[in-house]
Write a structure and sequence with these properties.
Layout: E1 13-19, E2 22-27, H1 28-41, H2 47-74, E3 79-85, E4 88-93, H3 99-126, H4 135-138, H5 146-161, H6 169-178, H7 184-208, H8 212-238, E5 254-255, H9 260-269, E6 274-279, E7 282-288, H10 289-298, E8 315-316, H11 322-332, E9 335-340, E10 343-349, H12 350-361
Parallel strand pairs: 2-3, 5-6, 8-9
Antiparallel strand pairs: 1-2, 3-4, 6-7, 9-10
Helix pairs in contact: 2-3, 2-5, 3-5, 3-6, 6-7, 7-8, 8-11, 9-10
Length: 368
């Protein structure tokens, strides 16, 4: 199995920078939240103190995620990317973590925030600065209480992330512990259920308070819990099943000398949306629908597919466990090529995977 390169990032994100070799990407909702906070709050308080506090919190969240990445590296697991969302960050690993690995990797993030908070409080005590615990004073930002707000902010980040519900770290810690006494899918469903209940409670409180920022956070928590539950269900339905059981075996290919016009005609005349590009018996690339349409608009119908195809495609072996392929498919996109050495055997597409999972949920046994 050859993983796709790291340049395939999470959808809806933009590449920001690399930190210790790990790509950091910003989700568009995170960018919107930062703009919203700046526009609504910056004008009403000390610009310098608010900017320092906002940068400090963002840096704390990023260090939190780097804590996950560093501990994962100790287990030999590479972090493919860190994605910054409105409710925090997400460290995407190259493979699923074992229960013991997930426990320590998940715990590392909140511990980083606790260390940051302890370091800030220690510095203020060393500098003989008075530490106020009056919340009414802390919610009124000034140049004098930036460090105090950052210290308490990191305490809140640690406490919030340790809540035993998905998608917070506490939910992952809970799943890791439950996995020793329950199957992985049951452990995930319990943690995801708690995440949904937390989101509903937070959303109702936000509507009644009214605190619409809590409603905003509740929406993302609910969405994250639902996605984690769906992913666990997918792993349960595919565990132990080889890729060959779900792949498409009837497909069309394009020659390296074919034009965009030829590819467009195939797109119209078949239900296929991803086309392997071959040169003789060798697969040299993959042309998907979105790439085809983009090439049609920029290069024209007479351009050759060899000049616009994706040469960095995901190839998987027919005997690979389908459960291990699912996260790779999420990274690679719509399609992967099933190959035995250099021989193309079939396609594994997102649509076909969804149909396979739907049939499995209704009790159909796969033909291996």
């Amino acid at each position: 199995m050859r993983p796709v390169s790291d340049r395939s990032g999470t959808a809806g994100t933009v590449r920001a920078f690399r930190l210790l070799g790990v790509p950091v990407r910003l989700h568009f909702t995170f960018i919107l939240l930062v703009v919203f906070l700046v526009v609504t709050d910056l004008g009403g308080q000390s610009s310098s103190s608010y900017a320092l506090f906002l940068l400090g919190i963002l840096a704390s969240v990023l260090l939190h995620e780097m804590g996950h990445a560093v501990v994962a590296a100790r287990f030999g697991v590479r972090t493919l990317e860190i994605v910054m969302f409105p409710i925090g960050g997400l460290s995407r690993m190259e493979r699923l973590l074992k229960p013991a690995e997930e426990f320590w990797v998940s715990l590392a993030g909140p511990l980083v925030n606790l260390f940051i908070s302890a370091g800030l409080f220690g510095y203020m005590l060393y500098a003989h600065r008075t530490v106020s615990i009056n919340l009414s004073e802390l919610v009124r930002p000034t140049d004098a209480n930036v460090l105090e707000r950052l210290a308490f902010g990191n305490l809140l980040l640690a406490g919030f992330n340790l809540l035993p519900a998905f998608p917070m770290d506490g939910g992952r810690i809970l799943r890791a512990l439950l996995s020793y006494i329950r199957p992985e899918d049951q452990a995930t469903r319990i943690a995801a259920w708690m995440g949904r209940m937390l989101a509903i409670s937070m959303g109702l409180y936000g509507l009644l308070a009214p605190q619409f920022m809590l409603v905003f956070f509740a929406f993302f928590i609910y969405l994250g819990a639902a996605q984690e539950s769906a992913a666990a269900m997918g792993r349960t339905l595919t565990h132990g099943i080889p890729v060959r059981a779900a792949m498409i075996t009837e497909f069309r290919t394009l020659e390296h000398g074919s034009t965009i016009r030829d590819a467009a005609n195939l797109l119209l005349s078949t239900s296929q949306q991803d086309f392997p590009v071959v040169h003789g018996d060798q697969v040299i690339g993959l042309l998907g629908r979105n790439l085809l349409l983009r090439a049609l608009a920029t290069e024209g119908p007479d351009a050759y597919v060899a000049g616009v195809m994706d040469r960095d495609f995901l190839s998987i072996e027919p005997g690979s466990d389908l459960a291990e392929v699912l996260p790779l498919m999420a990274q690679a996109g719509r399609c992967a090529l099933v190959m035995d050495d250099s021989k193309l055997l079939g396609l594994l597409t997102a649509d076909n995977l969804m149909e396979f999972l739907m049939l499995r949920r209704h009790g159909m046994e796969p033909v291996v």
